[in-house]
Amino acid sequence: MPWWRNAVCYQIYVRSFADSDGDGIGDLPGVTARLPHLRDLGVDALWLTPFYTSPQHDHGYDVADYCDVDPLFGRLSDADDLIRAAHELDLKVMVDIVPNHTSSEHAWFREALAAKPDSAARRRYLFRDGRGPAGELPPNNWRSVMGGEAWTRVIEADGTPGQWYLHLFDSSQPDLDWRNPEIGDMFEEVLRFWLDRGVDGFRIDVAHSLFKAEGLPDYDEPQDRPAPTAFTEDGALLDQHFDQGPMWDQPEVHDVYRRWHKVLAGYDGDRVTVAEAWTHTRESMARYVRADELSQSFNFAWLESPWSASAFRRVIVDTFAALDAVGAAPTWVLSNHDTVRHTTRYGGGALGRARARAATLTMLALPGSSYLYQGEELGLEQVEVLPEHRQDPVWFRSGEPGRDGCRVPMPWSGDHPPYGFGGPAWIPQPADWAGLTVAAQQADPRSTLRWYQNVLRARRDLVGASVEIVDLGPDVLAFRRGDLLVLVNCGASAVPLPAGEVIASSDPSQPDPTSLEPDSAVWIRD
Ligand code: NOJ
């Protein structure tokens, strides 16, 4: 069985992990120096967010050169050193690939701007003439995911306003035209470049975009669209996300992943691909992980599940039903660099911490791979970042607070900022994090960090690739995996615990070993 079918992968947001040179921004040597933390935590793999040459308008998701390291993060030799050091500690390394768009500073886009309409250089991107008598209106009505129009007009070489280019994200992230074969060839070279350097796989950014429907037709977002985390009474996930419409999930994208599958299959070891595809249904998620396509797809329904036994149950059942049909293993995730940290989503404070541990313990009992996001092992909460410190393009484009609050640099040691991170952190760290540092928590046997270490150790003994739901009423999610019984109490009162050996508990200090308190979870071997 490939290692990634049942692994724990730790996401490193490189800017915010560890800063080795004191400029206040995390870097690759910083990651290498802190690898023992990941070994001690007990994860199997790490995923590095983009560290390639980039003007950093979207913190690396705007790539100017896919085959080099931005000086902010180090040099190419630092990437090699990191990969080697991780392998020596038995940690796999996944890197991020961003195929939907380049940076506006990529050589191809600069060439396109200098070239004429309808030139080969412009055909690598989605340049179009505008609508209206003088082309003054955007070519269609699409909106950027980050707010505002999805089109920007360029000034042509003669100084007059000219064509428009598509950007589903920031204007510094022009979308590539995947109908042009040059694009697929370029990305095959990029994959091979990093595979040859020894990476174990790729996380694929907005994997369900790439192709847009022919003719780029107008699209009106449904007006009555429910909120992104809407669930029905019985826990079914409702319509949501930026996943519908002519810019997402087009059938042609699957040919790309069949090609990538063949590229990876030509390398030794079990190299892995994981799709970031905010798809509409479990079934559309499953299409990305058919046997000749990608290895995994993030299961965002789990991350979006409210604190509800029926919602959790529904996601688990639907996930296995959809993935069993294509023979793929599931993934589970609760936090990442784009979402509010799960401790805060589940209520913050003591309640949020209790529920976050319970949801994490449940996730880690499920067959498949779990993805952890840096800092969750410290119980970090979302930080309220002051407007003057916000850097996310989402904030600048939409006026929404954006994602900086989950990207605040890691606290490693010491009593005050930057808590051993390096230089003064690029987003200020809270003044009350002294008790949350890695050093402080390592010294406290009851800390969140020590709890994660213990649970990840216990997880290594779990067996079984399927789960069987056990009915213990509407407020308790219960399931069996092999000889393990997992219970989560989402109700308001304690429930009796079945007899058996408690292997792990979200609240090891629970006073009564015969009952399960609200907002907690337990693994029992009976
Ligand atoms: C998804 C990434 O996770 C996010 O951080 C980024 O802004 C967009 N893709 C655009 O690349």
Summarize the entry for a quick read:
With about 525 residues, the protein is of the alpha/beta class.
Description:
By secondary structure, this protein is an alpha/beta fold. It is 25% helix and 16% strand. The strands form 5 sheets. Strands 11-10-9-5-2-1-13-12 form an 8-stranded parallel sheet. A 5-stranded antiparallel sheet has the order 14-15-16-20-18, with helices on one face. A 3-stranded antiparallel sheet has the order 6-8-7, with no helix packed on it. The longest helix is centred in the C-terminal third of the chain and has 17 residues. It is globular, with a radius of gyration of 23 Å. The structure holds 1-deoxynojirimycin. The site of 1-deoxynojirimycin (NOJ) has 9 residues, from loops.
Please state the structural category. Answer: alpha/beta
Q: Regions with pLDDT < 50 over 5+ consecutive residues? A: 227-240
Mean pLDDT across the residues is 94
Q: What is the architecture of the largest domain at the second tier of CATH?
A: Alpha-Beta Barrel
Q: What do we call the CATH homologous superfamily of the largest domain?
A: Glycosidases
Record field, number of beta strands: 20
Rg value: 23 Å
Strands in their spatial order, largest beta sheet = 11-10-9-5-2-1-13-12
Per the CATH scheme, the topology name of the largest domain is TIM Barrel
Q: How many distinct folded domains?
A: 3
Helix content: 25-40%
How large is the share of residues in beta strands? Answer: 15-25%
How far apart lie the N and C ends? 27 Å
Let me know the largest β-sheet.
8 strands, parallel
List the ligand species.
1-deoxynojirimycin
Number of helices: 14
